[in-house]
Every structure is written in structure tokens, then in C-alpha cells.
Amino acid sequence: MEVLKLAPNETMQVHEMLNFKTVCMTTSKLMEGVVFDQDLKKLLEKDVRQSMTAITDLQNLLSKAPTIR
Q: Fewest CB atoms less than 10 Å from the CB: which of 17, 20, 24, 51?
């Protein structure tokens, strides 16, 4: 059975998406504390939950990246 690996450029792109999603999630989490509108707060909480799922998925995808020695 052949093990599928990411190409180096794919690895870099997934890493960039992971960094971007982490920054977005951190921003949303920090904004939850300063927002008073309950609808906006719910949207931010939903964004944090979805971002955490996306971050986990991207980390799992990065586990298929080739190791560089």
C-alpha cells in the first residue's frame, strides 16, 4: 500500500493556512471579551469553534508532510 505524502509546496501552503487560521481564531477569541452585542458574541464563539476544528484538520494534514533532514 502506497503512503500518500504532501509535496513541499503543498506543505508550505497548508502551513500558511494553519498560521492564518490560528491568527483569525486568536483574534476572534480576544474580541469576545470586548464585545457587548450578544449576537456578535455568538458569531465570534461560533467562529472560534469552527476555527479550532479547521486547525485540527490542518494539523492532521501536516502530519502527512515529508520530513526534512
A: 20
